[in-house]
Write a structure and sequence with these properties.
The protein is of the alpha+beta class. It has two domains: 3-52 and 272-404, no CATH class; 67-259, no CATH class. Helices cover 56% and strands 18% of the residues. It contains 13 helices and twelve strands. It has helices at 3-16, 18-57, 85-94, 129-133, 145-149, 159-165, 210-218, 236-250, 266-309, 311-319, 324-361, 369-395, 399-404; strands at residues 60-65, 69-70, 73-74, 98-113, 116-125, 137-140, 154-157, 176-179, 182-190, 206-209, 225-230, 261-265. Strand 8 and strand 9 form a beta hairpin. Helix 2 (18-57) crosses helix 11. The chain is elongated, with a radius of gyration of 34 Å.
Length: 406
């Protein structure tokens, strides 16, 4: 018996029990749709986090004072004084793997402009800070190197600060804002970046020359942190090693001494977040994959019922010359048809559900082609795996006993 005839027989058998065949497919449909949707949500979250990190600067490196233990208690990094301007200058002049570097000091307080006020902080930075953090000035200009040398009381503000201190469309350029009784003249407004993946408002920012913040606001000579940017993301590790070597030399640390600073890169954050999202995606896919197993058990159950119902038919076919392999192929084709058809419907529903989640819940989604092919391949293998045993049972029936079956 050729394959075409076997296919026709299988299709006719399924057509005679349309509702039962559809209900059998339902488990496969739900399983495939669930797997595709869950993977799309997981991969969408991963892509969104990667995009947010790229916006913050994927090759950014942060250097903080750290590791100082006093009486078994780790002190606040902002209170430590292990980073000096000399460290910043050494890194700026001697490193080969850094594209940009900026000191950073910060002071929190109340910003006041006329009758408006807003709680925020002023960050003292260098000119490279915009490049490191992927900021750009939309109106006005960035403060200059001369402003840094003279500790000028000028600042660049983000959109959130501008909207709160200068509402109703007022132009903030040239206006004076006061911070802890110190006046700052606004020379520029940054282009809006919105919220990052951590939920922080990137436009709630005030930038001033680091010398101004150190002398006029904090009255300190040490840095709270240093921000840098590697030449490329691939060179981040090389840059980190170079920074560590220079700082250890500057701080006169012995080989046995621990670092009195901490270096963190966006690459570390990206790896951590990616592994977390991958774990969640795998967990969601495994939960959704249970539906495929349930669907496969449903196929096995229905094929058993089908073999029992058609025992006499199987006996008649075998008595007129049908071989066991033909009977096996007939029932196996039925199981595979159920799973493939269910898989196709599941793929369509899964893709539709993913876009529905994107448009209704506004979650980021990303459907990878491999997830569709994988789901479809798994459901096909499920049909073969769970359909094999009932088909084998049918093929092994004794023709005489099968004809006598009531």
């Amino acid at each position: 018996m050729n394959g075409t005839n076997l296919l026709k027989i299988a299709l006719r058998a399924l057509a005679n029990n349309k509702l039962r065949a559809f209900l059998t497919m339902l488990g496969i449909i739900i399983g495939v749709a669930s797997v595709i949707t869950m993977l799309a949500i997981g991969q969408g979250s991963k892509k969104s986090i990667q995009a947010q990190i790229a916006e913050m600067g994927s090759n950014m490196i942060m250097i903080h004072p750290g590791g100082d233990m006093r009486g078994g208690v780790r002190r606040d990094p902002s209170e430590m004084q292990t980073l000096k301007l000399a460290d910043y200058e050494a890194l700026r002049d001697e490193t080969n793997f850094l594209a940009a570097i900026s000191p950073n000091v910060s002071s929190s307080g109340q910003l006041i402009a006329g009758n408006n006020n807003y709680p925020s902080s002023v960050s003292g930075v260098g000119l490279d800070y915009l490049e490191i953090r992927q900021f750009s000035v939309e109106e006005g200009e960035m403060f200059t190197e001369t402003d840094i040398r003279t500790s000028a009381k000028v600042c660049v503000i983000g959109k959130t600060i501008a909207d709160n201190l200068f509402p109703d469309g007022q132009d903030p350029l040239g206006r004076v804002i006061r911070f802890n009784q110190v006046p700052f003249r606004v020379v520029g407004v940054l282009k809006s970046k919105g919220y990052n993946s951590m939920g922080s408002d990137q436009d709630d920012i005030v930038l001033a020359p680091y010398t101004t913040v150190m002398k006029r606001l904090l009255a300190q000579t040490y840095l709270q942190s240093i921000f840098a940017s590697a030449l490329t993301e691939d060179m981040t590790d090389n840059a980190t090693e170079e920074i560590s070597r220079i700082l250890r030399r500057n701080h006169k640390l012995k080989t046995t001494d621990e670092d009195d600073f901490t270096i963190r890169s966006q690459q570390e954050l990206s790896s951590m977040l990616n592994s977390t999202t991958d774990l969640m995606t795998t967990l969601l896919a495994c939960i959704a994959g249970i539906s495929l197993v349930v669907g496969g058990i449903g196929i096995m159950n229905i094929m058993y019922v089908s073999v029992t119902e058609r025992t006499r038919e199987i006996g008649l076919r075998m008595s007129v010359g049908a071989r066991g392999i033909d009977i096996l192929a007939q029932f196996l084709i039925e199981a595979v048809l159920i799973s493939i058809t269910g898989g196709l419907i599941g793929v369509l529903i899964g893709c539709g559900a993913s876009f529905l989640v994107k448009n209704v819940a506004h979650w980021p989604i990303y459907i990878q082609p491999w997830s569709v092919f994988l789901s479809f391949a798994v459901c096909t293998l499920t049909g073969i795996f769970f359909g094999w045993y009932p088909a084998k049972k049918a093929a092994d029936l004794d023709p005489i006993e099968a004809i006598r079956y009531e």
